[in-house]
Write a structure and sequence with these properties.
heterodimer; A: three-stranded antiparallel beta sheet; globular; B: Penicillin-binding protein 2a (Domain 2); Beta-lactamase; five-stranded antiparallel beta sheet; 20 helices; 25 strands
Chain lengths: 400, 687
C-alpha cells in the first residue's frame, strides 16, 4: 500500500485538476442517470447508460494512468504511427460494411459490446503528431514549408471526418492546430493569412447556404444547411415558395428546431436553483428528446435540474481545468510538453464552448459531445486520456 | 494566484490564449445568466404551456325545488365507463411485438402496426367490459384514433349512462381488467318528466359557455356542460349554473397523462325554491290531461292572499329529460307539431299567445257597473227576450243570448251569463242614446285598473340582487283609456270604435285578449277583496355564503295596488260566483265539490283562426270559428285560499269542459289538505 502511495506521490498528481475531473464525472454520471432513469424499469443494469458510463470512466482512468506513467517523450516517439493509424481507421470507417451508420452518419465501429468513434481518438493522435512535428528549432519554424505541412496534417483528418459527415468534429481540428502553431511560434503573417482565408471560406459557405438560390449552392448536406438556417433564424422556405411548400417547410423547420428549442426551454426554465434531480419536466416528460438528452444535450438536463448555480459550477470546473492546463503548458519543461498541453486545452475548450454554446444558442447545433459529461465511451476515454497527457507533462517536468 | 499565474506569463501566446479562454467563459456565463435568471420566467411559462392541458370542469347545477323542497329539477349521478389509455401502454407494446413477430419493417409500417395494435387492445378491452356489463358493443375505430391523436390525456369514454344493474355488474365483474374505471358525473334530471315543462324549461348541451371567472389559460378540453334555454332554467341560468372549475393535466411529449392537478374547484350553482306545490301541480296536469292527451290548455292555481303560484300548467308540454338524453325521430316530429305548438307557455302567454276572455270578463264588467253606479240596484229585473236588440238606438246591432228568455236580476244574469243583460248596461243604462261612449269609458277604465294588457310580473329585486321575472310572459291586449281607434283593424284601415265594439267588449269579445295568468290575478283580486297582487313563482334563492341554504334571500309578497272596492260589490260578486257553481242552473255547476264552497265564472269565447286555406273567389284567407273555453274560480268563498283558472283551447264550452276540470283540481286540493291535517294530528299526538 505504502509502495503504491509512494509511486503515486512520485507522479505528483495535480489535486485541483483531479478534483475538477471527479467533480465533472460525478455530474456526468448523476445526470445521465436522471436523463435515463426509466431504463431501470426495462433494461438490465449492464444495459443502462449510467452503468456503462461509470464503466467508461473506470477504463478511462486506467488508460489515463497509462498516459501519465509513460513519459510523453516516449509517447511522442509513436506519434506519427498513431496519427497514420487513426487516419487509416478514419478511412476504414467510411467503407460501408465496416463502419456503422447511426443518425445518418458513418462514424462508428461496432465492437460488439460498444461502439467506437475513431474521430475522438484521431484528435488526440493529431495533437501528438502535430506537437511532435512542431518540436523543432525556432528558425525552422519560420519556414513556410513547415507551416504548410502543419496545415496539411490538420486538413487530412478534417477532410476524412467531414466525409462521414461530421462537420462539428472536423472543424475542431483547425482551432487545435492554430493554437498549437501559434504557441510553437510560426510566422504570424502566415497564421493571420491562413485564418483570414479560413474565416472568409466559412463566411462564404454560410452566406451561400443562407442566401444562394438552389442551383448555386455548395453541396452541403441538407441537415447541415438546416442547422445553419436554424442558427441564423432563417425561414426554411424560399421566398418564391408556394403556400403548400411553405407549410411543408414550416413543418420541417419546427421539427428541425425542436431539439434546440427544447434545450433552450430546459436551460431557461431552470431558474436560479433548478428543479431538483430527476424533477425536470423537460427531461422527465420527454420534451427533451430521449435520444440526445444523455449525450449531446446533457447540459440541458443539468441546467434544468440544478439551475444557474449548477450550470455555473460545471462551467467553473471546466474553467479551472483549462486554466490549470494552461499553467502546465506555461511551466512545461520543453516545447513538446508545452505544445501537447496547449493542444489538449484547445481541444477540450472547443468541445466545451461549442457544446454549451449550442444550448445557449451562441453556436449552431453540432454533434460535439461535452467532455466527461456526455454519455459515450470514445469521448470519455479520449477526454480522460487527453487530460492524462496534461498530467504527464506536469509529472515529467523535472525528470531529466 | 494558483491558476492565474499564466496571465503574467512571459510567454505571450500562452497569455493570449488564457485571456481568450477567460473571455469565452465570461460570454457563456453571461448568456447563461440572461437565459436562466433574466428570462427564466418566460421559459418557465413556455415549459408549462407545452406540458399542461387545461380542462374545464362544469359546476353542479343548482336544484329547482317546490315550496316543500320536493325536487322539480335536480341532478342524478351518471355512470360512464372510461378507459385510461395511459395505463395500457405496456399492453400496447406487448401486442405490437406479438403482431410484429420478427419481421423487418420500415418506419411507416411500424407506425401503422402500432396504431392497429393500440386499437386492437382497446377494442378488445371494450368488448370484454361491455360483455361483462351485459351490453356487448364494438368500439368505433375512427373515434378511437381521433381520441388518441387529440385527447390522449383524457380517458376514453366507451359506455355511457349505465343503468343501476349495469353499475352493479361492473363493480362486481370488472376485476383484472387494466385501465378500466367508472366515472361519475352529475347530470340534470326532471323526476316528473314533462311536469311543468314550460315553467321549468330545459337545457341544451353547450360546449362554449362563457365563464364569469378569468382563467389564465385557454381550455384544451371542456367536459360536457349544459346551458338553460327556456323557462326557469333559461331565465336563471346564471344563478343555477355556478362557476366552472379547472383541472390541469400534465402530459409528456407524446400527450400521455403524467399527473393531474385541480386548479380551481367548480362552485356549484345556487338552488331556487318555487311557489309550486308539486302535488297540486301533478293533479292539475292530470285533470287537464283527463280531457284528452292532446288538450291544449292551461291551469293556474294561485294563492289569492300572497300571489303564490301553486300550479302553473301549460299543455301540451314535453319531457325536459329528453333534451339531455336525446330524441327519437318520432319525438322530434312531436316536438315540432305546429298544430299542438308545444313550445309556447299557454299559462303565461309566452310567444305573445293570448286569448279572448269571453264571459269571464263579465266579472270586470260587473265590478265596473256596480262601482260606477251603472247598476243602481242589482235586484232590478230586466227582461231578456233571448237576444239583444235596440232598433231605436242601435239599428244595426243585435246579438243572440245563450241564456233563455225571461226576467233577470244581477245574480241570475251572472250565473246564466246573460249577454243581453250586460250589453244593455254597457250601451243604454238610462235608456238614452250615445250612452255607449260612457259605457266604453268605464269598461276601459276598469279593464286598465285590473292591469289588463300588461305583464303581471315585473323584475324582482331581492337582497340587492336584481332578478328577471321568473316567467316569460305575454301581455295580451287591452285598449288604453283614450283609445279612439280599434287595434284589430282589418286591411290597414283605421276603424273607429262603434257601439257594437263596446257591446262585444263587455262580454269579453273583440278588442281584448288576455292570458290565464292575468285572469288568475283578476280572480285573486275578487277573492281577496280588491288587491291586485303580483304572482309569485320564485320564493327563495339559496345563498352560497350560507352553505347553499335558503335563508336571507326570499322574495316578498308584492301588492301592486288596491282597487278599493266597496264591500257590497265584493260580497255581491262572491255571492254571484258562488251561485254560478252551487245553483242547479249555474253555468259552472260542473265544478261543484262537496265540502268546499267554490265561486266561479265560466266563459266561452269565440276566436277566428285561419284554416290555412284561401277563398277561391277573393283569394283572401279563410277563417273558422274556434272556441276558447274558460273557468275562473276561487275557494273557499268564505275565506279564499285558492284561485283556480282553467283555459282549454277548442273546447265545447267553459261550463262543460273547464268547470269539471277545475272541480278535479279542487278535489285533489281537498284530499291533500285532509292528508296534511291528518299528518299534523298524528304529529301532534306523537308529540
Amino acid at each position: 500500500m505504502n509502495l503504491v502511495l509512494a509511486h503515486l506521490s512520485k507522479l505528483r498528481i495535480d489535486l485541483l485538476m483531479a478534483f475538477c475531473l471527479f467533480g465533472l464525472m460525478l455530474f456526468g454520471s448523476i445526470f445521465i442517470l436522471s436523463a435515463s432513469v426509466e431504463q431501470y424499469e426495462t433494461n438490465d443494469l449492464v444495459d443502462t447508460y449510467f452503468f456503462r458510463q461509470v464503466i467508461f470512466y473506470f477504463f478511462g482512468i486506467l488508460a489515463g494512468f497509462l498516459f501519465i506513467i509513460i513519459d510523453y517523450h516516449k509517447l511522442s516517439g509513436y506519434a506519427q504511427t498513431f496519427y497514420w493509424a487513426t487516419i487509416l481507421l478514419l478511412i476504414l470507417v467510411l467503407i460501408p460494411g465496416v463502419g456503422e451508420v447511426r443518425f445518418g452518419a458513418r462514424r462508428w465501429f461496432d465492437l460488439g459490446i460498444t461502439l467506437i468513434q475513431p474521430s475522438e481518438f484521431a484528435k488526440l493522435a493529431f495533437i501528438f503528431a502535430l506537437a511532435d512535428f512542431l518540436t523543432r528549432p525556432n528558425e525552422e519554424m519560420l519556414m513556410p514549408g513547415v507551416f504548410f505541412k502543419a496545415i496539411g496534417m490538420t486538413a487530412l483528418p478534417f477532410l476524412l471526418i467531414l466525409k462521414q459527415p461530421d462537420l462539428g468534429s472536423s472543424l475542431v481540428f483547425f482551432p487545435i492546430g492554430t493554437a498549437m502553431m501559434f504557441v510553437a511560434g510560426v510566422r504570424l503573417r502566415f497564421l493571420i493569412k491562413f485564418l483570414s482565408f479560413f474565416s472568409f471560406l466559412a463566411v462564404f459557405v454560410i452566406l451561400n447556404a443562407l442566401y444562394a438560390p438552389n442551383d448555386w449552392r455548395i453541396p452541403l448536406n441538407e441537415y447541415q444547411r438546416h442547422r445553419l438556417l436554424v442558427y441564423f433564424n432563417k425561414d426554411f422556405a424560399s421566398a418564391d415558395a408556394t403556400p403548400a411548400e411553405r407549410r411543408q417547410a414550416q413543418k420541417l423547420q419546427r421539427s428541425r428546431t425542436h431539439n434546440i428549442r427544447q434545450a433552450e426551454i430546459s436551460v431557461g426554465s431552470g431558474g436560479l436553483i433548478g428543479k431538483g434531480w430527476g424533477q425536470g419536466p423537460q427531461t422527465r416528460l420527454g420534451y427533451l428528446p430521449k435520444g440526445v438528452a444523455h449525450n449531446d444535450f446533457i447540459f440541458s438536463v443539468i441546467s434544468e435540474e440544478t439551475g444557474f448555480l449548477g450550470s455555473m459550477a460545471v462551467l467553473s470546473l471546466y474553467a479551472i481545468l483549462l486554466l490549470k492546463g494552461m499553467q502546465i503548458a506555461d511551466q512545461a519543461r520543453d516545447r513538446l510538453g508545452k505544445l501537447l498541453a496547449v493542444g489538449v486545452v484547445a481541444m477540450i475548450f472547443c468541445h466545451v464552448f461549442v457544446n454549451i454554446g449550442m444550448h445557449l444558442r451562441l453556436m449552431p447545433v453540432t454533434g460535439i459531445p461535452l467532455p466527461l459529461l456526455s454519455y459515450g465511451g470514445s469521448s470519455v476515454l479520449s477526454s480522460l486520456m487527453a487530460i492524462a497527457v496534461l498530467q504527464n507533462v506536469k509529472t515529467h517536468r523535472n525528470l531529466y | 494566484m494558483f491558476i492565474f499565474d499564466q496571465i503574467r506569463s512571459k510567454d505571450i501566446p500562452i497569455k493570449l490564449i488564457v485571456l481568450f479562454i477567460l473571455c469565452c467563459f465570461l460570454l457563456l456565463s453571461s448568456k447563461l445568466w440572461i437565459l436562466q435568471i433574466s428570462a427564466g420566467d418566460r421559459f418557465q411559462i413556455r415549459q408549462e404551456n407545452q406540458s399542461v392541458r387545461a380542462i374545464r370542469l362544469p359546476a353542479t347545477r343548482g336544484k329547482i325545488l317546490d315550496r316543500n323542497d320536493k325536487p322539480l329539477a335536480v341532478n342524478r349521478l351518471r355512470f360512464d365507463v372510461h378507459i385510461y389509455i395511459d395505463e395500457l401502454r405496456a399492453l400496447f407494446r406487448e401486442h405490437y411485438f406479438r403482431l410484429k413477430k420478427d419481421r423487418k419493417m420500415n418506419r411507416l409500417d411500424q407506425l401503422k402496426l402500432g396504431k392497429e395494435a393500440r386499437y386492437q387492445v382497446v377494442s378488445n378491452l371494450t368488448m370484454q367490459v361491455s360483455m361483462r356489463v351485459g351490453n356487448p358493443m364494438v368500439l368505433n375505430q375512427s373515434r378511437f384514433h381521433k381520441h388518441y391523436e387529440q385527447r390522449l390525456y383524457m380517458p376514453l369514454s366507451v359506455m355511457q349512462d349505465l343503468s343501476p344493474v349495469q353499475v352493479a355488474k361492473f363493480v362486481e365483474l370488472i376485476h383484472g381488467l387494466p385501465g378500466v374505471g367508472l366515472s361519475v358525473n352529475p347530470v340534470r334530471t326532471y323526476p316528473n318528466g314533462d311536469m311543468a315543462f314550460h315553467a321549468l324549461g330545459f337545457l341544451r348541451r353547450d360546449d362554449s359557455p362563457k365563464d364569469s371567472k378569468d382563467v389564465p389559460f385557454s381550455y384544451r378540453y371542456r367536459l360536457p356542460d349544459y346551458v338553460g334555454i327556456d323557462g326557469l332554467e333559461g331565465i336563471y341560468d346564471a344563478l343555477l349554473r355556478g362557476d366552472a372549475g379547472a383541472k390541469t393535466i400534465r402530459v409528456n411529449n407524446i400527450s400521455y397523462r403524467t399527473s393531474e392537478d385541480i386548479w380551481a374547484w367548480p362552485e356549484s350553482g345556487r338552488d331556487i325554491r318555487l311557489s309550486i306545490n308539486r302535488e297540486i301541480q301533478l293533479s292539475a296536469e292530470e285533470a287537464l290531461k283527463s280531457n284528452g292527451s292532446e288538450t291544449r290548455g292551461s291551469i293556474i292555481v294561485m294563492d289569492p292572499n300572497n300571489g303564490d303560484l301553486l300550479a302553473l300548467v301549460s299543455k301540451p308540454g314535453f319531457d325536459s329529460n329528453k333534451f339531455i338524453t336525446g330524441f327519437s325521430n318520432d319525438e322530434i316530429s312531436q316536438l315540432n307539431d305546429n298544430r299542438l305548438n308545444r313550445w309556447v307557455n299557454r299559462a303565461t302567454g309566452s310567444g305573445n299567445i293570448a286569448y279572448p276572455p269571453g264571459s269571464i270578463f263579465k266579472i270586470i264588467s260587473s265590478i265596473a257597473y256596480l262601482e260606477e253606479g251603472v247598476i243602481k240596484n242589482p235586484n232590478n229585473k230586466i227582461f231578456n227576450q233571448g237576444f239583444f236588440r235596440n232598433e231605436k238606438l242601435y239599428p244595426n246591432y243585435s246579438l243572440d243570448d245563450t241564456a233563455p228568455p225571461g226576467d233577470y236580476d244581477f245574480i241570475r244574469a251572472f250565473k246564466l251569463s246573460s249577454n243581453s243583460y250586460f250589453i244593455r248596461y254597457a250601451l243604454t243604462p238610462d235608456g238614452r242614446t250615445d250612452q255607449w261612449l260612457q259605457g266604453k269609458k268605464i269598461l276601459l277604465d276598469w279593464g286598465n285598473k285590473f292591469m289588463l294588457g300588461k305583464k303581471t310580473i315585473s323584475p324582482i329585486s331581492i337582497s340587492g340582487e336584481k332578478l328577471a321575472s321568473p316567467v316569460r310572459e305575454g301581455s295580451g291586449y287591452f285598449p288604453s283609456l283614450d283609445n279612439e281607434y280599434k287595434n284589430l283593424n282589418q286591411y290597414g284601415k283605421k276603424n273607429r270604435w262603434a257601439a257594437g265594439d263596446v257591446a262585444n267588449l263587455c262580454i269579453g269579445q273583440g278588442e281584448i285578449t288576455v292570458t290565464p295568468l292575468q285572469m288568475a290575478v283578476m280572480t285573486s283580486a275578487i277573492a281577496n277583496g280588491g288587491e291586485i297582487i303580483q304572482p309569485r313563482l320564485l320564493l327563495a334563492v339559496s345563498s352560497l355564503r350560507e352553505n347553499n341554504q335558503f335563508h336571507s334571500i326570499k322574495v316578498p309578497r308584492k301588492v301592486i295596488k288596491n282597487l278599493n272596492l266597496k264591500d257590497e260589490t265584493v260580497s255581491l260578486l262572491h255571492k254571484a260566483m258562488l251561485a254560478d257553481v252551487d245553483d242547479r242552473d249555474g253555468s259552472g255547476r260542473g265544478a261543484r265539490v262537496s265540502g268546499i264552497s267554490i265561486g266561479g265564472k265560466t266563459g266561452t269565447a269565440q276566436k277566428q283562426v285561419p284554416t290555412g286555406k284561401f277563398s277561391t273567389k277573393t283569394g283572401s284567407r279563410l277563417f273558422r270559428m274556434d272556441h276558447i273555453t274558460w273557468f275562473v274560480s276561487f275557494a273557499p268563498v268564505e275565506s279564499p285560499k285558492y284561485v283556480v283558472v282553467v283555459m282549454v283551447e277548442s273546447g265545447a264550452s267553459g261550463g262543460k269542459i273547464c268547470a269539471p276540470i277545475a272541480g278535479k283540481v279542487y278535489r285533489a286540493i281537498q284530499k291533500l289538505e285532509k292528508n296534511k291535517n291528518k299528518g299534523e294530528t298524528k304529529l301532534a299526538l306523537r308529540l
